[in-house]
Amino acid sequence: xxxxxxxxxxxxxxxxxxxxxxxxxxxxxxxxxxxxxxxxxxxxxxxxxxxxxxxxxxxxxxxxxxxxxxxxxxxxxxxxxxxxxxxxxxxxxxxxxxx
Length: 99
Fold this sequence. Notes:
By secondary structure, this protein is mainly alpha-helical. It has 2 helices and no strands.
């Protein structure tokens, strides 16, 4: 009878291990799905923030362009001299870097 009891316990152990494997597979699938869903949520949040940042940059650039345009219209000579002076200074700096 001892051999019969050992065989029954061995069969029960095999059954328990099979159940454990199934439970682990289910757990892994659940974690994958949760990770995928969380990843989608993070992606959506980042995408929304990127769109907002892009819109802010476009608005700021448009405003800056308008300010510069008005400044050039109001003071064309000063604007030309400022552009020339800036170009001259940058040219001198770049020329020195080459030597």
